[in-house]
Design brief:
The chain is of the alpha+beta class. The chain has a single domain, classed as 2-Layer Sandwich (60s Ribosomal Protein L30, Chain: A). The chain is built from three helices and seven strands; from the N terminus they run αββββαβαββ. The protein has a five-stranded mixed β-sheet with strand order 1-2-7-5-6. A two-stranded antiparallel sheet has the order 3-4. Helix 2 packs across helix 3.
Length: 155
């Protein structure tokens, strides 16, 4: 039987992607006490890279928000892989977001709202979190956005 969050995802028309395996020497998540640390998730969808390029050059804010949303959905997919039941999530604690940006681009916080809004959409008030939104010169595989996260779960 699907949990409340799984049912809510279905109501929203959201299908979580398959959690991807690491591509280097790291693990996709670490559980420490009641915190789950999810490694950085990029704009991968169904095994295909999406949103390859820079914000302010190749993409504008609205596209960046879609890229950040995809990263958020990948975070939730990894979280589900880690804990099994998303109903165990008591809080989205923090998101650290990296935006591949043209040097003149300064709207990283607006881009990352795509991920923040997704967390609130999925988890309600428990989805409200602290965050960082940082512009960087490049990201792995040239993607536009990468986001990692920390989640609190019930024991």
């Amino acid at each position: 039987m699907a949990g409340k969050i799984d049912a809510h995802l279905a109501d929203l028309g959201i299908t979580l992607p398959t959690a991807t395996a690491p591509v280097a020497n790291y693990v996709p998540y670490v559980i420490a006490g009641n915190l789950v640390h999810i490694s950085g998730q990029i704009t991968m969808e169904n095994g295909e890279l999406k949103f390859v390029g820079k914000l302010g050059k190749d993409y504008q804010v609205e596209d960046g928000q879609k890229a950040a949303r995809l990263c958020a959905l990948n975070l939730v997919a990894q979280l589900k892989s880690a804990i099994g039941d998303l109903d165990k999530v008591t809080r989205v604690v923090k998101l650290n977001a990296f935006v591949n940006s043209d040097p003149a681009f300064t709207d990283q916080p607006k881009v990352v709202n795509g991920a923040s809004d997704t967390m609130v959409e999925i988890f309600g008030d428990a989805g409200k979190h602290a965050r960082s939104a940082v512009g960087v010169a490049s990201l792995p595989l040239g993607v536009a956005v990468e986001i990692d996260g920390i989640f609190e779960v019930a024991n």
